[in-house]
Amino acid sequence: MNTDQLMDPLRFDGQVALVTGAGRGLGREHALLLASRGCKVVVNDLGSAYDGTGVGEKRVADEVVAQIRAAGGEAIANFDSVEQGELLVAAALAAYGRLDIVINNAGILTPETWSELTLESWQRTININLTGVFSVMKAAWPVFVEQQYGRCVMTSSPAIFGAGVAAYAASKAGLLGLANSLQFEARKLKLDIKCNLLVPQADTRMVRDFASAIDDRRVQQGRPPARSAPPEMLARLSPSRVSAMVAWLAHSSCDAEASIHEAGAGYFARLNWARSAPLFATEKEGLEGAPMPENVRDGQATLADFEHGHMPVSGDGTMGGPSALEQVLRHIKIAD
Ligand SMILES: NC(=O)c1ccc[n+]([C@@H]2O[C@H](COP(=O)([O-])OP(=O)(O)OC[C@H]3O[C@@H](n4cnc5c(N)ncnc54)[C@H](O)[C@@H]3O)[C@@H](O)[C@H]2O)c1
From ligand 1's centre to the CA of 130, what distance in Å? Predict the structure, then answer.
């Protein structure tokens, strides 16, 4: 089916998007999709290796811009690092006079195991994957506020669940706190600004080069290389099968806030935090003073009971949310 056959296609006419790391892989597909729906796109990419070394391959961003223009769309290239977010936002404003959408996609991954990980590598990863998003959003935020409108997507990773890449996982988990906090700010200002998270999976240069670096180590250690998925499986993991979620989260009609969505190979799911049923150790349970470790040990079944718990939402981190104190006070009152 093409868009002409759709009853109500999602369009971005008159809007401007900044897509970071859009010279290849996932970012490239996000940029192409947005441009094909009428969005003007700033294709940012400094052209580095998957681990952030060897910057300067400008060709990749230029090629995406040429492809967008050849299809009748509008785009410009930008080659600055996301660490200098103000330059990226300035490029969007200079070219198009506005900025409606920021897709924070640029990221790097280094192949060290925990025992190999150095402070230098940790900091390089955090600088680009987390502080880079901070830098871009710091510059984009006043524009969003001025326009009273904005859509921001941040790219996290399944690595947050643990995958042997500690710096990468920590940087990607940091984005969860950042997105929740920006959403909180937007809500305080009562503005139509939405900040959401993507957890993608795709066969890209990052994944391939990472896998081959790991294989090199295995071979050096006298172990066989890991078996790679057959080509037909890899074809299913084309990055183009992720971008629909990004375009949806970037659209004006999407009212999701600080949501986390998985996307890959045509599969989509929403991730959520879960809070278990509450375990109380208070005077109602006959306790005087501070709870004891045994109260926690003996309450394991309650802490494993998610059926009677609930899902926290963005903003729950404030004292106005369902804090521990509030829960306990309610619990004790019920006892009266
Ligand atoms: N591919 C996956 O399965 C997967 C899974 C989880 C998360 N991610 C995340 O998705 C994003 C895109 O990954 P990909 O797989 O397309 O990787 P990729 O390496 O193929 O592409 C990333 C692009 O970002 C650019 N880039 C790197 N550092 C930059 C910087 N400082 N400023 C501007 N551009 C920079 C690179 O030059 C590259 O073109 C990354 O944030 C990655 O961590 C990917």
Answer: 13
Catalytic-residue membership of 168: yes
> What pLDDT, on a 0 to 100 scale, did the predictor assign at position 320?
47
CA 258 vs CA 4, 6, 28, 193, 316: distances in Å: 31, 28, 23, 11, 12
Q: Give the pLDDT band of residue 321 (cuts 50, 70, 90).
A: low
Question: How does the average pLDDT of the chain come out, rounded?
Answer: 94
Provide mean pLDDT across the span 250-257.
Answer: 97
User: Counting every residue, how long is the chain?
Assistant: 336
Atom of ligand 1 nearest to the CA of 209: 19
Higher pLDDT: 235 or 20? It is 20
- Sequence-distant contacts of 87-90: CB under 8 A, at least 24 apart: 88/18, 88/20, 88/42, 88/44, 88/136, 88/139, 89/18, 89/136, 89/139, 89/140, 89/143, 90/139
Selected catalytic residue, list 50, 96, 149, 168: 168
Instruction: Render pLDDT for 273-313 as a digit per residue (tens, 0 to 9).
Output: 899 999 999 999 999 999 999 999 999 999 999 999 888 77
User: What residues line ligand 1, using a CB cutoff of 6 Å?
Assistant: 20-21, 23-27, 44-48, 50, 52, 60, 81-83, 105-109, 128, 132, 155, 157, 200-202, 204-207
The residue ranges of every structural domain in the chain are 3-271, 283-335
| CATH superfamily name and code, 3-271 | NAD(P)-binding Rossmann-like Domain (3.40.50.720)
